[in-house]
C-alpha cells in the first residue's frame, strides 16, 4: 500500500498486539492441519530436501518436516524494498525476513520486479524461498460511473521463472512507472502553487536512481524541507486521496491488470481492501475478471468483514505485513502476520498448478527454440548469469526449486527434458545443438 493507508489507519496501530511466542499457545493440531502442514512444508523445503536426497539417503526429509513443525512455517506475502518506496535494499529485506523467522518471502514492490534478482541471491544464503511478486497500481471505475474512481492495488505472485511473458508485464508496468513520474511532478507543481517551493530534484533524489517516485517520496521531501513535521502530517494535510496536492497517475484499470496477471501465469490478489471506499463492488467486479484472492489478515489478526467477503466470492484469504521498513509509527514488522497453515495450503493449492503450468510454458519455448533470448527468459532472475552447462541442468534447476516429484511426473515435462538433454549451454550463454547419439 501507499504510505497513506499505513499512516492514516489508527486501528492498525492501536489494536496491534504482540503474540507471545509467535504462534501463540501450543494447541494440538487437528488431522487436517497436520496434513496441511506436511504438504506446505514439502513445498517450502523442496530444494533442501532434494539436495539432501541426492547426496545421501538419510532421513533428512523427515527431519526437515519435524524442524519446520518446531519452527513454524512463516510466509510473508507483502513487502517492499527500496526498488519502490521501501527503505531497505532487497538483500537487507531478505536478511531481516530471515532474522524474523520467515521461510517464504514475496517481494512485492510497486510496479516493478527489479529487486527480485538481488532478493533471490540473498535468499540463497539464508535458505529462504522467494516468491517473485509485484504490487500493481490500478484504478477502478464503478459500472455506470455512479461512484468516483478509486485507486486499487493488485498483488501478483509468480513462479521462480517469473511471468510467462515478461515483456508484456514489463511494458504494462513501465507505463505505470512513467505515470508515477508525471504524477509526482504534478504533486510538486500543486505544492508550489500552495506556496511550498519544493524542488523536483529533491523528490527524485529521495526516491533514488531509477525508482519511480511515489507520494511517500514527496512527503519525505516536505519533511526534509521543513514544510511539515512528519510524514503523517504531509498526508493528512496535503497528499491524501483527493487532497490539495494530490494527483492521479495514469494507472490502468484493475480488471486489465488482473487479466494480464492471469495470462502471464500469476496469482492475482487484492491488496488491503480495508483502504477501499467501495470494497464490495470492487471485489465483485474483480472476481469476474479472474481475481484469485484478497488480503484479509493483518498483524492484528483476521478482519471478519473481508473474510466474509472472500467467502461470498469464493476467494483465497491471504495477507501480509506490507512492510516498508520506515520504522516507528506502529508499522507492522516484516513477518508479523501469522497465516494459518490451512490458509497456506489453500494458497498453494491454487497457486501451484498455475506456477507449474507457467514454468512448463517457459521451458517449452526454450526447448522448441534454444535461443539466447529464450534462455534469458528462463534464467531471468539469475544475477550475474547462470552457471549452467546443459539444458538438463536448466530443467533440474527449475524442478528442484519449485516442483514436487508429483508435479514433475508429467508427460509434458518428460518431453521437454528429452529435448533439452541435447542442448548445451556455453558460459557466455550461447547454445549449441548437439546431435543426439
Ligand atoms: Zn498498496
Ligand atoms: Zn504494499
Structure description:
The protein is globular. The strands form 2 sheets. Strands 1, 2, 3, 4, 5, 6, 7 and 8 form an 8-stranded mixed β-sheet that branches. Residues 1-24, 56-61 and 429-437 have low confidence and may be disordered. It has helices at 3-8, 10-14, 31-44, 46-55, 60-71, 90-99, 116-126, 166-193, 200-207, 215-224, 231-239, 254-263, 279-289, 304-312, 341-368, 372-378, 391-402, 405-408, 411-420; strands spanning 75-76, 104-107, 129-140, 150-157, 267-270, 293-298, 301-302, 316-319, 423-425, 431-433. Helix 3 crosses helix 5 and helix 10 (215-224) crosses helix 11 (231-239). It is α/β, with parallel strands linked by helices and 437 residues long. Helices cover 49% and strands 11% of the residues. It has 2 domains: 3-161 and 266-351, Metal-dependent hydrolases (TIM Barrel, Alpha-Beta Barrel), CATH 3.20.20.140; 352-433, no CATH class. The chain is built from 19 helices and 10 strands. The chain binds zinc ion (2 copies). One zinc ion (ZN) is lined by residues 1-2, 135, 153, 271-272. This is Polymerase/histidinol phosphatase N-terminal domain-containing protein. InterPro entries: PHP_dom (IPR004013), PHP_domain (IPR052018), Pol/His_phosphatase_N (IPR003141), Pol/histidinol_Pase-like (IPR016195). It comes from Malus domestica. Residues 1-30 are annotated as: Disordered.
